[in-house]
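Progress note, project year one: complex with IPE.
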Amino acid sequence: MLGFNSKEKAADGTVPEGADDLKPPQHVAIIMDGNGRWATKRGLPRIAGHKRGLNSVRKVTREAKALGIRYLTLFAFSTENWLRPREEVHGLMDLFRFYMRRECKVLVSEGVRIKFIGDPSEMPEDIQKLMVEAEELTAKGEVMTLVVALNYGARAEIVRAAARISERVAAGELTGNDITEETISAELTTSGIPDPDLILRTSGEQRLSNFLLWQAAYTEFLFVDKHWPDFDQTSLRQAVIAYNTRDRRFGAVRKTA
Ligand code: IPE
Ligand code: IPE
Ligand code: MG
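Model obtained:
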């Protein structure tokens, strides 16, 4: 239970119907979008939007933990984001460095484990090192797992999984008949992480942009009109409330009481 009641009470003190039953999604994944537009609207360089976006990362991580969310995935850099101007890519890499150097201790003190998904091999070497260090340093965190998608592309991830499985078949470890959905899931960089219950995207865009294509088979989607730097604790709580109104059937018929 989220313990929403005290905060979600209407002005007359009554608890909205159903508020007692609010359950946090186990896994929320966020496409943090709109940093550039947030900055441009204010006459600032795009990187200023990314910097402000980092405040939202901190706020949302803390709130997700408070809400009882066990896995929070943040899409930080896609395999297609290398196409951006050099200066912006460099600025983003500097922010990743800054975040990992500064934030690890805080995550440890809060019991948050960090895990990266995507292909680290294309990241600058010093960042690869920081990623390994951050995973090692926070490995004991049991309250929440913060999954950071860095150089992540769902299609590339599926291609790599297919290549690895075909190697195993060639080595005689597996036959074609042994390949199941679990075989494929186990070869993805998200192996061991439950599929997201909710994917939310800020900035009003309504697309996945190559995010978690396999894992999102039965995920609920929520598109929020705010740009990422304006997304805060309240926005996340509202998203969880919206999630609680969804009727997830997974192809079956809803059980009646
Ligand atoms: C999302 O904000 C952050 C990253 C992709 C790293 P954008 O930079 O995509 O912001 P917009 O969509 O251009 O406004
Ligand atoms: C998706 O946002 C990637 C991240 C949030 C890291 P983009 O801004 O790159 O996606 P498109 O280009 O609008 O589809
Ligand atoms: Mg964008």
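Residues 33 surround magnesium ion (ligand 3) (CB under 6 Å).
The longest helix spans residues 86-109.
No further modelling is planned for this target in the current period.
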